[in-house]
Write a structure and sequence with these properties.
- The chain is of the alpha/beta class.
- 37% of the residues lie in helices and 25% in strands.
- The longest helix has 14 residues.
- The mean pLDDT is 91.
Length: 155
């Protein structure tokens, strides 16, 4: 389960970013600096987002789930960022529908067989609008971890 080992150092509250590239750079840098990913990870995130957008609208709340090919990952991890102001991502499965994103779940997947499973784990959390609202308004990383673990325990 991807939530069992959340690293509070990969959770950013009220991150200031104006563009998708800035989100990728700030979050990706944490993954690289903490040894989760190779230096190539940040550019790979940006490149993949252009080809396969990750924005989704959950009942009016924008969420993005950027990730890369496993070749850029050293060990699995998940980062979460709440954004101070929404950043426009492109809606998943489109090439031109904008989504104002307030929360980003960034994946570092090290096993290609687990990619879809991890996306489904994230969707299980974010499709619960109340849980998503709690994450967006969390005051610190530990609160976010607690909210997600509480959601998992209710499954």
């Amino acid at each position: 389960m991807i939530w069992s080992e959340l690293d509070s150092r990969l959770i950013m509250i009220e991150m200031d970013a104006k563009t998708t590239d800035e989100v990728m750079e700030k979050m990706g840098k944490a993954f690289v600096n903490l040894g989760y990913c190779k230096d190539s990870y940040i550019q790979a995130l940006k490149d993949r987002e252009v080809e396969f957008p990750t924005g989704i609208d959950i009942d009016g709340i924008g969420v993005a789930m950027p990730h890369t090919d496993v070749s850029h990952v050293l060990k699995a991890g998940i980062g979460i960022a709440t954004l101070a102001e929404p950043v426009t991502f492109t809606h998943m499965a489109t090439d031109d529908v904008p989504v104002p994103v307030k929360t980003v779940f960034m994946l570092a997947v090290d096993d290609p067989g687990r990619h879809l499973e991890e996306i489904q784990d994230i969707l299980a959390v974010i499709q619960d609008k109340e849980t998503l609202k709690q994450i967006i308004t969390a005051e610190n990383a530990e609160n976010v971890i607690g909210i997600i673990k509480e959601k998992e325990n209710r499954k």
